[in-house]
Amino acid sequence: MADQTPEISYLSVPGRDDVPEGVTRLWDKSQEAFGFVPNVFQGQAVNGDQFLAWWNYFNLLVNKEGHLTNAERELVAVVVSGINRCTYCTISHGAALRQFTGDTVTADLVAVNWRQADLPARERAIAEYAELLTRAPDEVTREDLEPLREVGMDDHQIMELVQVIGMFNMTNRVATAIGLVPNEEYHSHARS
Q: Residue 48 is part of which domain span?
C-alpha cells in the first residue's frame, strides 16, 4: 500500500497496484469526467472488492435514472449527511445539489438546517421523512408515509426514497469513521 495521505483518510490509501482493475478504471473515469478522483473512491478502496460492491449499489441508487429526480436524491443526501454531521458527504453532495438545482443559497441552507430553506411541499415532505428515518428509525410507522403520498409520491418513489436514505446513513458512518476529507474541488463547484 502507498503511504498514508492524512488529508484523505485515517487509513492508508492504496495505490494503483494495490487495488482491483475495476477500481483503477473507476479512478480513471473520474479523473476524465471531473478532473480529479473523489477521495471517497480512494479512501474506501482499501478493500477494493467491498468498495466496488458499495459503488455499484450507490451508483444504481444515486447516479442512474430512477423514480426520484437527481435533485431529490441529492436533497436526501445533504439532509441525511447534515443530520449525521458527515463532513465529506455534506460537502460533496452539497456541490451536487447546487449543480442540479442551480441554487447555491438553498443548497447551503439545506446542508446546515433544511427547515430554513424555502422548500416546495414535495421537497419538504422528502426532507421531513429523511430526517425521521435518520434520527428515529424505530419510531417510523405506516402513517409517516402519508405526507409523502399527499405530495404525489407513489410506492416506487417511496421505496427509492427509503433506499437512498438508508444508503446515505450507511455511507455517512463509513466516511466519518475513516475520516474522509472532501476534495477541494467540491467547495467551489457550481457556485458561479
A: 16-62
